């Protein structure tokens, strides 16, 4: 049986379990594994332990046609029982008295193996996060040191690109998106609005001058995406700024566009929270070129309570709150 507690109370939990006739067989940060002495029943008072955030995973009947179905039900029940807990460490896998769990029968060994594999996958410490390139490179990546210092057991895999990543196909655990996804088994929350503007290098402006309006901008060299390779509608905003304009350089990478603009090639639309920090750049036509977009934080409804996912969600929210003025 698995018992959970707040960090720092492990010794108290162990004493209380022993006082109620249980033998503590394993402990860790915020948890203890215990079982009755041979021949003893679980004390009736166990549910009345006066201990903060205590959870007892009691057996229940599990039914299913196959081994995988049984294991999935058992894993779902295990995770559901822990959903309300605030866990700051990885959960151990506790499967006590397997053969006696009702409904498993002779398939117990195979179900236990499948259950452990499912639980290991769901409770693994690697969180795969998909973000737009700019947000990933300029918000997520610089903050990874702080996340590692806070939760060193959590590893983040960052997918930073301009194409859409499917959470329903399990390509990632959570994602930052530019549009609110359609209804489905996803949990969606607004992360932050942000702005984009028109920029050029100070050297270019000193040599060629700033355009006086959008009409003049159409005759200047522009840096832009490769249109046919854009599969995110929110990135298609060139026509509303300078339809028919001549582009001098195109790239699927916003980082490459930023570098070309900063080198003096011409004008381009960049994220204000990044471009405003670059002393080589200057914003132009700010009164007529301001594009507003929103970052959405999306996760699987059935997995957002898992420690690795919840940790990254809370961390991203804190990072955005701390840099609200930049966006």
Characterise this structure.
- There is one protein chain.
- The protein is built from ten helices and twelve strands.
- It has 327 residues and is of the alpha/beta class.
- The chain has three domains: 2-122, no CATH class; 126-190 and 295-322, Periplasmic binding protein-like II (D-Maltodextrin-Binding Protein, domain 2), CATH 3.40.190; 193-293, Periplasmic binding protein-like II (D-Maltodextrin-Binding Protein, domain 2, 3-Layer(aba) Sandwich), CATH 3.40.190.10.
- The strands form two sheets. Strands 4, 5, 6, 7, 8, 9, 10, 11 and 12 form a nine-stranded mixed β-sheet that branches. The chain has a three-stranded antiparallel β-sheet with strand order 1-3-2, covered by helices on one side.
- Strand 4, helix 4 and strand 5 (155-160) form a beta-alpha-beta unit.
- Helix 2 (67-82) packs across helix 3 and helix 4 crosses helix 10 (307-322).
Total strand segments = 12
Point out poorly predicted stretches. Answer: 42-57, 84-100
Return the string of H and E elements: EHEEHHEHEEEHHEHEHEHEEH
Q: What is the percent of helical residues?
A: 25-40%
Helical/strand content category: alpha/beta
The overall number of domains is: 3
Beta-strand portion reads 15-25%
Q: What's the shape?
A: elongated
Question: Layout of helices and strands, plus pairs?
Answer:
Blueprint: E1 2-4, H1 10-19, E2 22-28, E3 31-36, H2 67-82, H3 108-122, E4 126-131, H4 133-150, E5 155-160, E6 174-177, E7 186-201, H5 202-208, H6 214-217, E8 222-224, H7 239-242, E9 247-250, H8 254-262, E10 267-271, H9 272-275, E11 281-284, E12 290-300, H10 307-322
Parallel strand pairs: 4-5, 4-6, 8-9, 8-10
Antiparallel strand pairs: 1-3, 2-3, 6-12, 7-10, 7-11, 7-12
Helix pairs in contact: 2-3, 4-10
